[in-house]
């Protein structure tokens, strides 16, 4: 039976109530959230929840569950926000061409609608500036074109006496004080008759023009900056024209440098988002990664590819996702179908009147932003099947494959899949097998994406301890760091750039400690190790040892002979001694090195005074 009513979450004092109404006219002023699609009341003061509408109409949930769902939806919308604004990307376009007629044709077509600065490259022309000795450089706001322009007549010196005109037998001198260099034969008659020396064919002026856009109407013949964004050729004209207007920008991707394992200044570390983004919206800078939100299509691929959680999908981030399902009493064995609103609306439209037992429908704007952490968390909460309704994307497919392989090795089936909107309309939504977990994953405080995965794997191994060693899962973002302990001096260079805390120093035992499950295999530690004793070993192992800390290297501390302060290790001391010995300088500093940096100075001055 098709339902024509929908739910409204009301606030009465300090309490919330969930009621049903039959029309929007019945929605009371106290409404804070309504089970409708967002386009049904775009200007409303309350929040629209497609998730509440679809689950109320297609699900078999009790009113108590729908009440908890309404509260979870309210919290989700209030917790997650992002910047949205209008961006004016119109700007001056420096247009360059070798042939004046090519430039003329372009200006005749677009000159009335675009802000153009046309430049001819070398060929004599009266209609446009003719540029020689050009250079093009990147600036903070766009580009700077610097060039020489030949100007034989100095307008400040010219008396406009008219003597030069009659002596030019080529009629190259024009009354607007220009010289048609394509006709001039450099005879010098005009120079000779000019009483003020206003004519000089060796006179040039240097011009600088700045603009956000560069357009070459022919193949570029001058050096162009390494950063080529906003430099266009004729075949990319449509892209340039698309930029000349006002655009709505939603900053749906949020970046946290504290968690990022890409170390731009070292040109090292993780590059997964840089390699994944189909729009080239993520760039390296001296300060780290920068997101061009105007170029960003919001596809979420970078979020799915990010192993640390430094990139988050702002409309529904990791922390909110975890809290959402922690507060939602999903029945064990539920199928969770995650799809954008337009897809949920299509399912509702085609299937209205049909009830789907034990199926929960979640509106998620961009499922391609989901990761293995989200999928494994749902499994840990007792979900038996997760269907992501979206187009295939490499990063998401890899995450689904990883999550499926983990569950398959432990329980023997693969509960996660990606379907298109047409496929899901034909598919059965029942799970292939029931989730065998006896207890749900309850006690969990979210800290980061990788620590969440660590906690989930620990929970799985406690719930389903494998009888024998399981095969290693191939993975580029999980693995070990191997260390040649005999050569490691515990210099701590590797610790400075490990933001996941997979590597840490233990001040009590003077040990380099490593937790495999926290390592994203970015390789930064390998790059910065001065002794070159570290090596990556990719692969995920479902074993307690992979989740636990282990010592990679350990040494004894060295104490200052004067004050007793610990200022290094024996291995580092031996490394310094060996290096100085090879340089023949050990004898001159031997008496100072057993002291800390403060006492070393005191020792030096006391020896001088003696």
Layout of secondary structure:
Blueprint: E1 6-12, E2 15-21, E3 31-34, E4 47-48, H1 50-58, H2 63-79, E5 84-88, E6 93-97, H3 100-110, E7 116-121, E8 130-138, E9 143-150, H4 164-167, H5 189-193, E10 204-211, E11 213-216, E12 231-233, H6 237-242, E13 246-250, E14 253-255, E15 262-263, E16 268-269, H7 272-276, E17 282-285, E18 288-291, H8 301-305, E19 311-313, H9 318-326, E20 335-339, H10 341-351, E21 359-363, H11 372-380, E22 385-389, H12 394-411, E23 416-419, H13 421-426, H14 449-463, E24 479-483, E25 503-506, E26 511-514, H15 524-528, E27 534-538, H16 544-547, E28 550-554, E29 557-559, E30 566-569, H17 570-583, H18 586-589, H19 597-609
Helix pairs in contact: 1-2, 1-10, 2-9, 11-12, 11-14
Which keywords apply here?
7-stranded mixed β-sheet; Alpha-Beta Plaits; 5 domains; alpha/beta
Widest sheet, order of strands: 10-9-8-7-6-11-12
Low-confidence stretches: none
What fraction, in percent, of the residue positions are helical? 25-40%
Q: What's the story with the biggest beta sheet?
A: 7 strands, mixed
Secondary structure: number of strands = 30
Shape: flat
DSSP summary: helix tally: 19
What count of structural domains?
5
Please compute the radius of gyration using only Cα atoms: 35 Å
Mean residue pLDDT:
92
Strand content: 15-25%
* Head-to-tail CA distance between termini: 102 Å
By secondary-structure content and strand pairing, the structural class works out as alpha/beta
